[in-house]
Design a protein that fits this description.
Layout: H1 2-12, E1 32-33, E2 63-64, E3 73-79, E4 82-87, E5 94-99, E6 103-108, E7 115-117, E8 123-126, H2 131-138, E9 147-152, E10 158-162, E11 168-172, E12 191-196, E13 201-207, E14 211-218, E15 227-239, E16 242-250, E17 254-255, E18 258-262, E19 268-271, E20 274-282, E21 295-299, E22 305-310, E23 315-322, E24 325-337, E25 340-348, E26 356-365, E27 369-374, E28 385-387
Antiparallel strand pairs: 1-17, 2-9, 3-4, 3-11, 4-5, 5-6, 6-8, 7-9, 9-10, 10-11, 12-13, 12-20, 13-14, 14-15, 15-16, 16-18, 18-19, 19-20, 21-22, 22-23, 23-24, 24-25, 25-26, 26-27, 27-28
Length: about 400
């Protein structure tokens, strides 16, 4: 019942609330995530890249850089023996390193204390083999812990250091705009693109501020509702004219880094030279502050006694009991994109469960209650109505 209700809501709102996922190929075929674990990246390099984390020491007279110190496009001097470009887009937490037309690396990061950590979901897209590119790949090897610190030195010069090494200059770079494609990531915010991917298949993309939710559906003329196939969600931005989408939540195998372009009229999305016709609509939603969902919650849906702990570090644990018998247990990570609450499972009772759950928070009051119309297909499934426990 819950799942069919969700699909009906998608159809009624023209995917305005639950838009769209992408399982389409990126510019390469090697960057694929398999839910729930990610791709095992391993590559050799002719240049040594230390796996030690970046030093916390900042030179005398310098300070940690902030987002305000960064430009949209910059040049990192002498990285891996050459100049490599860094793009920040609209500064919503997605960064990318570029060797133009050859390779790039996308990394989601909060840029806390001026540090870019490549271990937090960075992924590369590679077209050719070269020493600098192999070194770039090294940054995203599984179990590696590479970081890049940015400072503003005593001479007011922006600089970077890789893994605690020598500080080198960062300078502003210019990138020529292409007027035929969207070049500003915020231009997509509060929009839904519903794009045709096959005879009866569509992918919708709902864009929030620096985040997206994507859902693949099959449209069946004999049925009232579309059939949900899979969904994914994560960070997005437009860097150097490329729409980059990095999924962090997903229900099925997806591309680890999707690279696309969107026409200036929003009617065409191009992925791997394939043009997809799209319709654009306004995405209307009420923003849900993540802090309003933090804390302890309880529910009694489905004849079970449920508890949900939504922690400030973006981890959660949900349990369901019938008497003293534990009937459900899920734990993992969570986030809120617009009005969409997303949960990614890292552990479940019995070891098997849906890899991720998504749904809209339609009504809520911080510290009191919230309604969560979610997509959990498991039995028992995560409840929809939660209230704060009372204490004496």
């Amino acid at each position: 019942m819950k799942h069919s209700f969700l699909l009906a809501g998608i159809t009624a709102a023209s995917l305005a609330l639950f838009a769209c996922g992408d399982s389409s190929p990126s510019d390469t075929d090697d960057d694929i995530l398999s839910s729930p674990s990610e791709k095992d990246d391993s590559s050799s390099s002719t240049e040594d890249v230390s796996s030690s984390s970046v030093s916390k020491d900042i030179p005398a007279g310098a300070r940690a850089a902030t987002l305000e110190d960064l430009e949209r496009n910059m040049t990192l001097k002498d990285l891996f023996g050459r100049d490599i470009y860094l793009a920040t887009g609209e500064k919503h937490g997605l960064f990318s390193l570029w060797i133009p037309d050859t390779a790039w690396l996308a990394a989601p990061s909060d840029f806390d204390d001026g540090v870019l950590k490549f271990s937090q979901g960075a992924i590369t897209s590679i077209k050719v083999e070269a020493d600098a590119i192999k070194s770039m790949e090294k940054l995203v090897e599984k179990d590696s812990d590479h970081s890049m610190r940015f400072i503003v030195n005593e001479d007011d010069q922006l600089q970077y250091s890789l893994d605690g090494g020598e500080y080198k200059d960062v300078t502003e770079a210019s990138v020529k705009k292409n007027s035929s494609v969207v070049s500003n990531g915020d231009s997509l915010a509060a929009k839904t693109l519903f794009c045709k991917t096959g005879e009866n298949t569509f992918t919708g993309y709902s864009f929030y501020k620096g985040r997206y939710v994507a859902t693949d559906v099959v449209r069946n003329a004999k049925q009232t509702n579309d059939s949900l196939v899979s969904w994914s969600a994560g960070y997005y931005d437009i860097h150097r004219g490329k729409l980059l989408m990095r999924p962090l939540f997903y229900t099925d195998a997806v591309q680890a880094l999707v690279s696309a372009s969107v026409s200036s009229d929003y009617e065409t999305m191009t992925i791997s030279s394939e043009d997809r016709s799209c319709t654009v609509s306004e995405l209307k939603y009420r923003e849900v502050p993540a802090a309003d969902l933090e804390g302890e919650w309880e529910s009694d849906e489905g004849g079970l006694t449920w508890s949900l702990d939504m922690r400030a570090d973006r981890t959660f644990e949900v349990k369901g009991f019938k008497g003293s018998e534990n009937k459900a247990l899920k734990k993992g990570t969570w986030d809120v994109y617009g009005n969409q609450l997303l949960m990614k499972m890292t552990g479940c009772l019995g070891g098997t469960c849906t890899p991720a759950v998504m749904g809209s928070v339609s009504k809520w009051e911080a510290g009191s209650y919230f309604y969560y119309g979610n997509s959990d297909p498991d039995d028992p499934s995560i409840p929809e109505y939660w209230i704060a426990p009372e204490y004496e």
